[in-house]
Amino acid sequence: MPTHTIPVIAIDGPTASGKGTVAHRVADKLGFHYLDSGALYRLTALMALRRGTDLADEHALAKLAEHLPCSFTGSSVILSHENVTDAIRAEEVGNTASKIATFPAVRHALTGLQLGFRKAPGLVADGRDMGSVIFPHAPLKVFLTASVDARADRRYKQLIDKGISANMEDLLMDLRARDERDTNRAIAPLIPAEGAHVLDTSSMTADQAVEEVLKWYAAVIK
Ligand code: CDP
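Above: inputs. Below: predicted complex with cytidine-5'-diphosphate.
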């Protein structure tokens, strides 16, 4: 199957919109591969934090991104043989990821790696710019969103479930700051791609959102 004919479902949206869960389940249902592009930004951030790389040094950060020694096995994320699945989920890593993601050289360095996930029989790609930049010809593009309150609520529950203490006020502030950075950056800003289906999941369960995406996909391949 030539690469450009392998179907891609691009699912973009703001932080804590539930796109990770929805994208994962859609990939499972269709037997497709799954790309968590945010994990690549988080891995770069984790390496930078551990190495003490200057977080304003675009060139040095791009170099880290370009030679990211990472692999994905099942739901585990591996960095140089170390399982960093939980480590990359830390709030500090997410915040750093969102900062370094504003650098064009970092985004450019991660492009090839992301394109490499497009393998038969298909790919569900989750991120901020999957439909707008990385896979602009994806047959189905979805922009998943939810109100700030609904998203803060979900993030709060996620953290508490993991046994991590959380403060609602801090979470709301953090979400707003991240939305602001992701939406207003000059390169690959977080906006619905052309032709994207917008799905507001504020009052939907993840399964309802999955059903909706699968319905759209069934219509696309008809
Ligand atoms: O969990 P959350 O949705 O907050 O973040 P994520 O999807 O794991 O991504 C972490 C950060 O990487 C985001 O805040 C974005 O700034 C950045 N990112 C990006 O710029 N482009 C992508 N395709 C994916 C993530």
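The chain has a mean pLDDT of 94.
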